[in-house]
Write a structure and sequence with these properties.
about 210 residues; mainly alpha; two-stranded antiparallel sheet; 9 helices; 2 strands; about 5% strand; globular
Length: about 210
């Protein structure tokens, strides 16, 4: 919920102390200097933004941490069973604070790369809802760094597809959001059917069970 506090603070900064004098009174800051912008790199005729390899390196590092370090084992144990983690001597409070700090730092880095590579300045609205989309991506990726990378590519493809149908078929780009919701619904339904057994109870069986 601190996201809303950060948004209000950003809105106050770009409308007040950081407002650009050349912005015609619009709530924006001055353009970033060249050294503060992530430019695209030409790799064999394909322009790749520097934020992409940075994200890939972070995925590899997190995968190694989660699979091959004690801290990753502690995160997995406390995430699956806090009681078992407490029996093993792990502190649930310290791990919660560590997870919040790490995830917040990574989210901030992601937002910083978006601003440095796509916008080039600060403005009141930066994200069209990436934070809430990240919840879907994390769930579809099963909280695994590699799985999250694959799920992120799938969700990103749906966004690009939504923009494509808006321009080519004159349909609403919100159709991509509908597809994301349907995808999440079926994943949740599959988990429910795998973990739980659906059983229809008749009136007599229900009475005998209560008895």
């Amino acid at each position: 919920m601190l996201v809303y506090c950060a948004n209000l603070f950003l809105d106050w900064m770009v409308r007040g102390p950081w407002r650009s004098p050349q912005g015609y009174n619009f709530p924006i800051t001055i353009d970033f200097h060249e050294w503060a912008v992530l430019n695209a790199v030409d790799v064999g005729g394909i322009y790749i933004n520097l934020s992409a390899p940075i994200a890939l390196v972070l995925v590899i590092l997190l995968a190694v941490v989660m699979r091959s370090t004690l801290k990753g084992f502690e995160i997995r144990v406390l995430g699956q069973s806090p009681r078992a983690g407490s029996f093993a001597g792990f502190s649930n409070r310290r791990m919660t604070a560590f997870a919040f700090a790490l995830s917040g730092a990574l989210a901030g880095l992601a937002g910083m790369m978006v601003v440095m590579s796509e916008i080039g300045k600060l403005q009141p609205v930066i994200s069209p809802g990436y934070g809430f989309t990240a919840i879907i991506v994390a769930f579809l990726g099963r909280l695994n760094p590699v799985g999250i990378l694959i799920a992120g590519l799938v969700i990103a493809s749906s966004y690009l597809g939504g923009e494509a149908i808006q321009t080519s078929l004159q349909m609403s780009s919100k159709l991509a959001t509908v597809i994301q919701g349907v995808l999440l619904f079926f994943v949740l339904a599959a988990d429910t059917l795998i973990l739980y057994k659906v059983r229809l109870v008749t009136g007599r069986e229900g009475e005998s069970a209560h008895a």
